[in-house]
Amino acid sequence: MSLPHAILTALLEKPSSGLELTRRFDRSIGYFWSATHQQIYRELGKLEADGLIRALPSEQPARGQKKSYEVLAAGRAELARWTAASQDPKPHRDPLLLRLRAAAVVGTAGLEGDLRRHLELHEMQLAEYREIERRDFPPGRDSAEDRLRHLVLRAGIDLETFWTQWLRHALADVAELPDGEPAGPA
């Protein structure tokens, strides 16, 4: 997913200012696509220059007043084109997995503590996702929009479930290894 398409999606859901978009990214979109305040503002300028969005007219002009943006027909068409296009999955790159591979040749010192820290972080994220699901997707809430949004949340829940299970397995395996010794040839 690209940032321009994430912004177009958010603006189609609700016209917003850059600051409001940043807050919305932090609360919802940020669970699967993150962006800084600066990246969002930079992308808003590009999208406006490309004729995909426009700043809404202000009720009372004032210097420094925040601009709210809406998606234009060309922006909706671009988002529809992008949504319909095929895209290959991206390979997963995680430094923790590379560190485990490196531990095979340099030893496991310090690794168990970090695995526990990762487990705790993933458990917290999983609990947060489950709370969002409980709060935002009660039984019977099944409009097309809700079902698609719930699918995105389910992906997060399933990924966090995978990570918590895998980390418990990794911790059990690492606990059986000799402490701090290389697991393989030096």
Structural class of the secondary structure composition? mainly alpha
> Roughly how much helix do the residues carry, as a percent range?
55-70%
Q: pLDDT under 50 segments (min length 5)? A: none
- What's the SSE pattern? HEHHEEHHHH
**What is the alpha-carbon Rg in Å?**
22 Å
Rough outline? elongated
Give the DSSP E fraction (strand runs of 2 or more residues). under 5%
Order of strands across the widest beta sheet?
A: 1-3-2
What is the total tally of β strands? 3
Q: Termini, distance in Å?
A: 41 Å
Give the rounded overall mean pLDDT. Answer: 88
Number of helices: 7
Structure description:
This protein has about 190 residues and is mainly alpha-helical. The protein has helices at about 5-15, 20-25, 35-50, 75-85, 95-105, 110-135, 145-175, and strands spanning about 15, 55, 70. The protein is elongated and about 70 Å long. It starts with a helix and ends in an 11-residue tail after the last helix. The mean pLDDT is about 90.
Compile the SSE list and pairings.
Elements: H1 3-13, E1 16-17, H2 18-27, H3 37-49, E2 53-55, E3 68-71, H4 73-84, H5 95-106, H6 111-136, H7 144-175
Antiparallel strand pairs: 1-3, 2-3
Features:
three-stranded antiparallel beta sheet; mainly alpha; 186 residues
Question: How would you briefly describe this protein structure?
Answer:
With 186 residues, the chain is mainly alpha-helical. It contains 7 helices and 3 strands; from the N terminus they run H-E-H-H-E-E-H-H-H-H.
